[in-house]
Structure formats: C-alpha cells, structure tokens
## 1
Amino acid sequence: MLKIVDSIERFIIRALIIMMLAAILLGTIELGRVLILEIFAPPLFLLDVTRLFEGFGLVLVILIGVELLKVMKLFLTEDKIKPEIVVEVAVIALCNKVITLDLKHTDGIVLLGIASLLVGLSVSYFVLRFRTVDKNLLTKEQNVESSDDLSKAG
C-alpha cells in the first residue's frame, strides 16, 4: 500500500514540475514581451514607474517559481524537503507583496502584520541556517576526534 502511495506521490511531483517549468517559461516570455513593448512604446526608452513595478513583481513571481521548482526537485531526488528553502520562498513572496504594495491605500495594521511576518520569517531562516551549519561543524569535529583517537591508538 505504501509503495502505491509513494508512486502516486512521485507522479504528482513530476506532473507539478512539468507544469511549473511551463509556467516559468511562459512567465519569462511574458516578462520579455512586456519589457520590449514598454521600451519601444512612445516615448522611446522611457519606462513608466508603475509598469516598472509590475515588471519587478513579475520577476519575483518567476523567482518564486524557480525556488519552488528547486524544492520539488529536491523532494523528488532526495525524498526530503529542506525547511530553509521553503522559508526562502516565503520571504521572496512576502518581498513581492511589499514591492507591489500600494502604500496610499494600505492600512497601518496591514503594514505591521507584513513587518511582523518578515521578522518571523527572517528569524526562522536564521535559526534553520545555523542549525545546518552547527550540524556540519559537529560532524567535522566528530570526524577529527575519531581520526585523533585512531592516530593515538596506532
């Protein structure tokens, strides 16, 4: 029964990867199309600030897609998900919201909520990142200690 669930799970991940690749590719083409049309529209080589922010938003959406693709690929190859990558995707998504946010029509409480989310995600990323570094250092120290023990015994 678990083998069936595992094979269905892998099939779904593969299908999601294919769809994500298509979405990223089409989003990149759309970004290029919009950018070229804006550059060559009168007045030539001048971009409107609002369209520029929309372009930044689209770049960040594509970046989120690429990071999600990494998460799915990692899950498919190693059968695990690194939580720090998921937090990275969340930070990028929140930054996308901040960049495209219309401050004139946004309440202060919403801004405080976004700020608290960003602080929480940053702390989470910091903790997850240094947890991984500490594990690597601990493994290296254990390897050094075991090699020292072997050299003393020999």
## 2
Amino acid sequence: MINKNNITPVLTWLAFYVCTCLAAAGAIWFGGDLNANGWISPNFAPPPWVFGPVWTTLYLLIATSGYLISKSHHKLAGLALGLWCVQMTANTIWTPVFFGAFDLRGSLFIIAILWLSITAYIPIALKANKLAGYLFTPYWLWVSFAAYLNFAYLKLNAVS
C-alpha cells in the first residue's frame, strides 16, 4: 500500500516539473533555425545542440527550487513562490515571441522581466531555503547570457 506521506512530496515535485515542461513545450512549436528568417547571428551564439541539454538541466533545477520553496515555512516563502511563478510565466512567453513572432524588441522586454524576476527570486529564496536559491544561480547565468544574445540579435538585425 502506498503511504500518502511518501507520495505527496513526489507528486508536488512532479507538479513543479510539469510547469517547467509546459514552458519548454513552446520550443517544440516555435523552436527552429534562427537563420530561417534571414537573421544574422552573433559570432558568440552557441550551436543549436547546446540548448537541449542546457534547458533540460535548468528546468530540473527550476522545478526542484520551486518544490523546495513550496515546502518552506519561512515568512518569505510566499513571496518567493510568487516570483517563481512570474519567472515561469515570462520564461513560457519568451519562446513564442522570439521564435514565433520574430519580435526581437518584444522578446528583449520579456527576457528583461524574466531576468529581473530571477534576480529578485534568488536572495529571497536563499532566506527561505538556501538550496532553492543556489539552484537558480545557473539559470540566472544562462538567462543573463540569453538576454545579451537577444540584444545582440536585435542590434545585428535592426529594422529601420
């Protein structure tokens, strides 16, 4: 017989992971060749094969961080969870704006919101659960790079 006390944490973590998978699902429909629309790529743009392993790892870290915050009884856990939701929403919206609408300005605006929400989340999460905060550090680094990359695409492909 399955003990509810043993299965509830697993189901809670799975719920957070499903949220990250839904965010990643946008890449299935909109991910593609950046050169298909004639964009000039920055010379520091990573090869396409890098994105799958990086995002798979990041989504595991994001889900685990959210799960840890959901289990925290710290007074800032609610705020941290709210910021987790904001970053997840911005993360989900960025892909169709960048790849689907080919809107470099709009995607730069969204990734700025994403970056700010991650930046705000980390110190708050660190107070509620240290590991939860630390798990977002690679994500913050990657989104910082992605924001710079988005900006570079905008500059190289500016439409007058």
## 3
Amino acid sequence: MSTIEERDVAHEGSKTCTFRTDDIKNSAEFRAAYEFAANVISAEDQPFEKSPDGLIKHLVHEKMNTRECCVDAYMQFLDPGSRSGKHRHMWEEVIFVAEGSGYDLHWDLKFDCLDKYQWDWETEPKKFEWTRGDFIYIPPFSLHQHFNSGKGEARLIVISNRIVKSMGFNWLDQVENAPGA
C-alpha cells in the first residue's frame, strides 16, 4: 500500500474563486471611502433611537460613516425610577455614568464545556450601585439591566467592541424590554 503525499492531491479539484482578488478590490474601495468618513460627529448628527432598551443616542456606530471601525458607543437615557431593558451579548461593555445615580443587576454566566456546551445564568443577580463619574463593567454574555434610583435623569455612555461580532459572535438576546418600548 502506497502512502498518499500532500503534493499528490494539492492540484486536485476544479472549483475556482476570486476571493483574494475581491479582497484587494474591497480594500482599495474601503480606503477610498475612509478618506471621506467623519472624524467628528456633531451632537445634531448623533441619531436617537427608541430601542427595546429605552431611549438611546448613538455616538459611534458602524452605520454612521465614521473613521472608527472597532467601537460602538451610545448614550442611554433613564428617567427617574425607570429602568432599561434586560439583555445579554457576547461582547464586553464598559459604561461611564455621565449623570445620575442608580444600580445594575447582573446575572453572571455559568459555563461548562466538559462534555458539551452548557450555558446557564445565576438565578440571583448581583447588585452594583453607581453614581456620576463611575465606570460599570459588563462581562461577556452576562444578563444585565440598569435602574435609575436617583431624582433626576441618568445618562450612561455605553461602549463596546464590535470586533467580537465580526468574529462570529454576534449574539444579542433581548430578554425584557424597557417600559414603553
């Protein structure tokens, strides 16, 4: 019995493609368009969205034609006594508290892959109090929700890395909508 060498099968097959050629063309088109992408986004050009998480204002988003290609950022508005929706996603978030005070509830992910992938979340949430000037960290795929317990509006600057989505982990689950959403 003879041993098959890699070189014996390297030229087998009849399928062709233009992947590399397309990549070169797409790269040139991206760089040409990048020259016209915005470095500064005025407050007037930052769109509002009535989302399942409540009222947000997009600061940087891939659909906004900015030079930023890795980060998404938005401002979340929470009225006194109100809350955001409850959701989870595969990317980390950092949140800067620009105004107000309140707390987060986080249901951390329990993960096991000894025999098979097993996903579960803590039954009791962890509570994290926050106030103006604080940063909040959201771990990947932790179920979380924001609450305004202050007397005035709370504004949260939510920042995340969109690269994780491009890596095949564009997992975003909305578990509960904000009031009025």
## 4
Amino acid sequence: MSISYFNLLPNFKYLSPLKEGGKRDQYIEVKNLFKRIRLKSEVFQFALSFNDYIIDDGERPDTIAEGLYASAKYDWVVLLSANIINVEDQWPVPEGKLWDLADEKYGGDLNAVHHYETTEVKNSDGKLILPGKLVVDPDFTIQDPNNYTQTINPTVAVSNWLVETRKNNEKRAIRVVKREYLNTLVNDTKNILQYQNSSQYKRSTGKVATNNLV
C-alpha cells in the first residue's frame, strides 16, 4: 500500500485558540508540518540505489511517481531523492509558462544579448585549445591554433531567452531512487520522523504542547 508523506508526519497537540465554555485545557491535534527530512549529500554517492531521470516537459512529481512506483502518492519520494525542497524554484516549468515568465522578466529585451561566451576551439590534430561556454567580452580573441600569424574571435552572443531556457533545462536532470529500494526509503523515513523521548513526548507519533495557562 502506498503511503503519502502527509500520513508519515507525526501529530502534535497544541492548545486550542477557541475559548469554548471557558476551558483552557482543550487541545487540537494536527500534523507537525515543521518535521521534514533531507537526504545527506553522501547518500547520492551510492549510485546503485538511484537512476538518472530527465523530466519531460509538463511532467510533475506525482506523474513521475505514478510511472516509476505505480502510485502518485510517492511524489514525495521523487522530490526527496532529487533533493528538491522548493518545487516552485527547483522544478522545471513547462515551455509555455517559461516564455510567459521570461517575457514578464525581460519584456521587449527577451531576445537581447545577455552575455557573450566562447565557442569550442580545437587545432588541426583535434586537441582542445579553448572550451566553449566561457563568459567573455565580445571582442575576445585568441591566436589561431592553425595559423599563428592570425587571431580569431571565437565568441557567440547568448540571449536572455537562451539563458532562461538553459536554467530551466538544468533542472530536468534529477536522480530517483530505484523501485527495489522504495520500501527501504519509506521505512527509514517513517523511523526518522518519529519523535524521541522528551517532556512533551506521548508516543512515537505524537507530542503535546506545554500548557502554560493552567
């Protein structure tokens, strides 16, 4: 049975803000949204536990989870294994929306030059002389590797639109946990989110706020 992240969150009882009947000891039980986990960077070194994944245009965490784990409820697994905290900023947007956002940001300068960068240069033997995509001035020159008496200007203009497209495409490459390790990740997450013993501890999945009004 698939488990949503919300169901894994422990509960928390806090004093009710409602003053019904003059009682000051009524509690409301809610999910503790402040509890969350994040995979340590060293976890991603275990390549056998993950697969590389390229997010297609319009795909969402829940649709990817449906395809990989047969349940959209595992959208949180997709985000966790991809080390994504803020979907709004870290998830690629559809191309149509990207155009609207870029147009709002740059207006009439959408296709204006953002910067100049190098193009790859090799000599006649195929040896790399200059890597591409280095930010340079528009008049940047180097000696022609095949004719030392000449200089070349291996630069290209990069538009604002291309910059935004590149940024968005960089977000498409993520890593997702393999299906055979899904249950292990879910069980580990459940254990991590449980409460430890404290003055507020009632059970592993629940705490009660201190009543300072009594």
